[in-house]
Each structure stands twice: as structure tokens, then as C-alpha cells.
Design goal:
CATH superfamily: Metal-dependent hydrolases
Bound molecules: zinc ion
Shape: globular
Low-confidence stretches: none
Oligomer: single chain
Number of strands: 8
Helix content: 40-55%
Number of helices: 16
Largest sheet: 8 strands, parallel
Mean pLDDT: 96
Number of domains: 1
Length: 384
């Protein structure tokens, strides 16, 4: 059966990738590549090669041609060509192939050196923006030596200074509470005394030989309100992630009380990834005016099943509430895969509706533009 062509309105989209990370500026061995391909920790000796996943097959199907190889090139052939071209050229080709109109880069996760937002923007040929990771700001303040009494003020100062700073513009903030204390955050803004007490407990427990790592319900909540007060949209990691996440504590319905409490402020809250809770996220995006959602990360991990995921996510999520993101991290392949699989999924969904006369061509064109770029531009107030 021939592969269906993309709808022209979807093919022409310059996608705004509202949640992505840097890529590794070095050539990779097979083990190094496989370690970055999925959320698994390193290669998977008991389960065989991580190329034998939906993500691995999708790399061979969709990325091989960008490196001038035939579709479905074998892993060894793919990696040899990658090494021959070198990481700079591979990154440029794959980021260009994604067809981006902008990137909002989360700079808070740097287990190793990664390309900066400005470098990624250069490779993609699209404007780059920065998303501040809230816990990292708090950890830097704690690590630089502060008293519990000064902690809140120092965090506020740092956030405000980052928003005002020149260079790549900060357009949002991100919370990884899901990875730390879980998403069952109390709704109300913590009072000053509560924050001093929580900071005191945290600072007293810090050890010079251990990394500074925030995992405190009160302080996660304090950070979320601090960002919202600055008018910064707040992203939450939700659902699926690496083995560090406890999936049961990363269900977005746990945020319900906080979402209800923050609705009056009108500052967007964006639920990232969501899989396998994308239907729950769709419900929250429908009932709370300031809540938005995406299906990043799962797109490339689901490979050819990405269409089923997008269709389920868009059962309830209003078309004005779903954003495109790759959640690419480490491998430039993931920028391209996120984009190509999302375009195919969106095109298939819109075409099915057209074939069944569920909507008009004009509706389909409008929805594609909203989901692919317009919603993100509105949420993060991007130019253009
Ligand atoms: Zn991410």
C-alpha cells in the first residue's frame, strides 16, 4: 500500500517545538547512541538492542534518508554514516529536516555538555528561546550558600534577573516535581513562614559530598507560584519518563487542586508528555482555561503508533490547547522523529475527518496551524 501523502497544510507547517533539550556535541559509539535513544538506562543487555524498539525502527525508517542512506538501513550502516558525516553535519541535517519555526529549550537537564539554545537555533535555522528549570534555580541558590530566611528572596531575584537578561529570551519555566515529591501538590500558595521552615529543613540536610537535589512539596509549590507571579507559563513534567519517575505519582489528575487554585491568575500551565495519561491531560485541558497539553517524548517512543496517541489525546483536548513538542534530548534524530511522526499523525487524523465529512478543509488547515505553531506562540508570547 503506498504511503499517504501529508496534507499540504501539515507538510508546510513550521512547527514550534515548545519543549526540547540540547543535543550531544560529539560522535557516538553504538552503546552511546542506544543509551540516548529511549528512556532506558543505557543499553539493555537482557532485552537485546534498543534498535529493536519502535524508536529504533523509526530512526532507520525516517532518519536514514536524511543522511543519504536507503530507508531501513541497518544500525551498523546508519552509525557508520553518522560517524562519517560527523556530529555537526548530522545535527544540522536532522534539525533542518524537522522544519521548525521556533524552539523552546529546557536548559535545566545537563548530565553532560549539550548544545545551547543559541547553537540549536543556529542548526535548526529557527529562533530559539529558553525555559528555566525551577528546581535548578533553587538548587543553585541553595548551593551558593544562603540562609533559610533569605532563600525565597534570592530565588525571586534570580528568576526576575533571568527574565530580564539579554541573549536568548526566557519564555517559560518548568517544574520536575513529578520526579521528586510527586504531583500531589497542595493547592494554596505556601506562606512565608512555611517556606522558611521548608528551606531550613532542606538546607540543614545538604551534605558537601552529595549533589544538591530539591524534593520538597512546599518548595516545589513555592517555585510554581514564584514563576506564575512573574507571568511565566509553567510546564510540568507529567507521566512517562526515565526510571527515576514513579509513574503513579506523575498522573496529572493529582494536580487538579493546584490547577483549580491557579486558574484565576490566567497564566498558562502546560502538561508535558502525559503518556499514558494523555486522556486525563485532555480532560484537564478541556475544563481548566489556563491548562495546555502535549504528547512529546511518547511520539518518537511509540514510532508508528504515534497516530493512535495523537488521536486519543485530541479526543478531549481542545484544538486550541494542544501544542507540538519533540522532547528531543541528546540525539538530533529525536528532533526529526518528533516532527515527522507528529506531522504524519496530524495529517492522518485531519484527513480521516475530511474523508468522513466530520470537518471542512478550511477547519483542517486552521487546526493544523493552531496545533503546529499558533498555540505555542500564544502560550509563550513568541513574536510573529
Ligand atoms: Zn524534556
Amino acid at each position: 500500500m503506498p504511503m499517504p501523502e501529508l496534507l499540504p497544510a501539515v507538510a508546510a507547517l513550521r512547527l514550534v517545538d515548545h519543549h526540547c533539550h540540547g543535543v550531544v556535541p560529539e560522535d557516538l559509539s553504538r552503546a552511546g547512541f542506544e543509551a540516548l535513544l529511549t528512556e532506558a538506562e543505557g543499553a539493555s543487555p537482557l532485552g537485546g538492542s534498543l534498535f529493536d524498539t519502535q524508536a529504533g525502527l523509526a530512526v532507520r525508517r525516517w532518519c536514514a534518508p536524511v543522511l543519504d542512506l536507503p530507508r531501513h538501513a541497518e544500525p551498523e550502516e546508519y552509525l557508520a554514516r553518522r560517524a562519517e558525516l560527523g556530529h555537526t553535519e548530522v545535527t544540522r541535517r536532522l534539525l533542518r529536516a524537522a522544519g521548525l519555526g521556533g524552539l523552546c529549550v529546557d536548559t535545566g537537564y545537563t548530565p553532560r555538555p549539550l548544545l545551547s539554545p543559541a547553537e540549536l537555533a543556529g542548526a535548526a535555522g529557527a529562533p530559539g528561546y529558553e525555559i528555566l528549570r525551577l528546581e535548578r534555580v533553587a538548587e543553585e541558590v541553595a548551593g551558593s550558600g544562603t540562609s533559610a530566611a533569605d532563600f525565597a528572596g534570592r530565588v525571586h531575584e534570580r528568576l526576575a534577573a533571568s527574565v530580564r537578561a539579554g541573549g536568548v529570551r526566557v519564555v517559560g519555566a518548568k517544574s520536575v516535581a513529578a520526579y521528586r515529591a510527586g504531583l500531589a501538590l497542595a493547592p494554596e500558595r505556601p506562606g512565608p513562614r512555611e517556606v522558611v521552615a521548608a528551606a531550613g529543613r532542606w538546607l540543614a540536610a545538604l551534605r558537601p559530598d552529595a549533589p544538591v537535589r530539591l524534593a520538597d512539596e512546599v518548595l516545589h509549590r513555592f517555585l510554581v507560584y514564584a514563576a506564575l507571579d512573574l507571568g511565566l507559563p509553567v510546564q510540568f513534567h507529567v507521566g512517562y519518563g526515565d526510571s527515576d519517575v514513579h509513574l503513579a505519582r506523575a498522573n496529572p489528575v493529582l494536580l487538579t487542586d493546584l490547577l483549580r487554585a491557579t486558574a484565576p491568575a490566567g497564566v498558562p500551565i502546560v502538561l508535558l508528555h502525559n503518556y499514558p495519561y494523555h486522556r486525563e491531560a485532555g480532560y484537564l485541558a478541556q475544563v481548566f482555561p489556563h491548562v495546555f497539553a502535549d504528547v512529546s517524548l511518547a511520539m518518537h517512543n511509540l514510532g508508528r503508533r504515534a497516530g493512535a496517541l495523537l488521536a486519543e489525546a485530541l479526543e478531549l483536548t481542545p484544538f486550541g490547547k494542544l501544542l507540538y513538542a519533540s522532547d528531543a534530548c541528546g540525539l538530533p534524530e529525536l528532533y526529526h522523529l518528533g516532527a515527522v511522526l507528529f506531522r504524519r499523525a496530524l495529517s492522518e487524523l485531519l484527513r480521516d475527518g475530511l474523508d468522513e465529512d466530520s470537518w471542512t478543509e478550511r477547519d483542517a488547515v486552521r487546526i493544523a496551524a493552531m496545533v503546529g505553531a499558533g498555540n505555542a506562540s500564544r502560550v509563550y508570547r513568541l513574536p510573529g
